[in-house]
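S.,

As promised, the adenosine-5'-triphosphate run. Input:
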Amino acid sequence: MLEVRNVSAGYGRVQVLWDVDLDVREREVVALVGPNGAGKTTLLRALSGMAEVRDGSVAFRGRSLRGLSIEQIVDLGIAHVPEGRRLFPGLTVRANLKLGGWRTKNTDLERVVELFPRLGERMEQVTGSMSGGEQQMCAIARGLMSQPELMMIDELSLGLAPVVVDEIIERLPDIAASGTSILLVEQDVDAALSVAERAYVLETGRVALSGMAGELLADERVRESYLGIA
Ligand code: ATP
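Predicted complex:
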């Protein structure tokens, strides 16, 4: 579905990514992990048209994304749930969700409420007064309102207690199974590799390791560097 080949990307004179290869297939959860500053956010931004792809190719269902505007990329069926959620804090859950469906004219809130019943109980609450976990549920639900075929989620766990992270992250396979593949950038490597089918480890702008998530979880280098297990 998504094919990234030899991608180099950056901002102005700063190059952040070198020769990155990555694939996301139908109905898959793929994790992208790595240390701070490795370039994970930059890769998501490059895929959604917010950072410049300088070299290489990015194709979504065989169509090149290079040079397309953010709106064109959204219209192809790619949603981006950014780091820090970026909800409209003064608007209600219902209004935030409706904005998510605005471009595709989707007004059906049922599917996202089924996934996150807590949002159904809080439809009229302003999102700024919700807990971090509820805000993250709302941000993911807002992304889903555009009925994307691929959803990229940046730092799902940011500022959340592990039990809340687990509660949200365990919904991702259901989302993928229902037709929205997920590319998940995550600091919580254990949680990400536990839920993903495949994963990529990005270090200083390059893919250092990739493979089945279960294999990476058992890999000595991953265990030492990211899970603190010697
Ligand atoms: P983190 O987990 O800390 O968010 P990351 O792996 O997502 O890290 P990026 O945010 O992609 O990493 O940052 C990669 C590098 O790009 C860093 O050195 C950062 O300083 C640089 N960078 C990020 N945004 C910009 C920008 N707008 N202009 C210039 N350099 C930037």
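DSSP finds eleven helices and ten strands in the chain. The pocket of adenosine-5'-triphosphate is lined by residues 11, 14, 16, 34, 36-42 (CB under 6 Å).

- D.
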